[in-house]
């Protein structure tokens, strides 16, 4: 019984040390100022075949830029949902950006997204519409690289 008591006491002591070292980070006055001053811009990159806007959000204006794309294929919608949530998170925690720029494009293929199909309205698979050494010009890849309006964005 004495051994169990020592074990429990040791466990509680270790847990207390662990918990005290895991403080929640809360915005300080400096972070709050950064959050207010870090620009957030809602923009339109272009339009789909059917004229639907391809929207993106730009966070910050630092020299290092990261581009995040959610859904290129309309039948793969999880990426768009995740990036929309991430946009909300970054809006509330802009201080995390530091001296960086983050551009988030949740949906590149709004026509395909609405129909839950891989292809844009013209039947082009946008992943295959980018320039590459092994690119093929055909009905699903497009007649030439960047031939789909969504690819220009």
Descriptive key words:
153 residues; alpha+beta; 5 helices; 35% helix; elongated
Adjacency order of strands in the biggest sheet: 1-2-4-3
- Note the beta-strand portion: 15-25%
Largest sheet features: 4 strands, mixed
The average pLDDT value, as a whole number, equals 84
Shape estimate: elongated
Uncertain segments: 9-29
Q: Give the H and E element order.
A: HHEEEHEHH
Radius of gyration: 23 Å
Number of helices: 5
Number of strands: 4
Structural class: alpha+beta
Percent of residues in helices comes to 25-40%
Kindly, what is the distance between the CA atoms of the first and last residues, rounded to a whole number of angstroms?
Answer: 70 Å
Overall description:
There is one protein chain. This protein is of the alpha+beta class and 153 residues long. The protein contains five helices and four strands. A four-stranded mixed sheet has the order 1-2-4-3. Strand 1 (40-47) and strand 2 (53-59) form a beta hairpin. The radius of gyration is 23 Å and the shape is elongated. The termini are far apart. The model is unreliable at 9-29 (pLDDT under 50).
Topology:
Elements: H1 2-20, H2 29-37, E1 40-47, E2 53-59, E3 64-71, H3 78-92, E4 100-107, H4 110-115, H5 149-152
Parallel strand pairs: 3-4
Antiparallel strand pairs: 1-2, 2-4
